[in-house]
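Q: Joint fold for the lines below.
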Amino acid sequence: MFCPKCGAQLVPGARFCPKCGQEAGAPEQAAETAGPQIYTVTFIREKQWFAINPAVKILVDERDEYRIDSGETIRVPMAAGVHGVTFKCGIRNKVIQLEVRSDLCLNLKWNRLTGSLVVK
Ligand SMILES: [Zn+2]
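A: Joint structure:
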């Protein structure tokens, strides 16, 4: 029997992992509580100099809200699957469909000519 969290070998009948303290649940219990795979989506906002350069709000599935300042990097946990991600700054709004199948990295910057947010 192995720890479901860290993989350490457990003494038969042990309730807790001696290495990480994880409760050694029954296998069927573990499968029940295991939701979709969670990945990390990293948003990197390029540092840009403007007279006014407020934070961009990032709304995931119109529910979880984050904010990112110029030059900042944030990491957002997201379940595997497709998510609607909205970037908001003042009256500007950009919505993308983000398919999460692994850890991702998105780069954000303002297009200096069009004033729109570029996400790639
Ligand atoms: Zn463990």
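Q: Anything notable?
A: The first strand starts at residue 38 and ends at 45. Residues 3, 5-6, 8, 17, 19-20, 22 surround zinc ion (CB under 6 Å).
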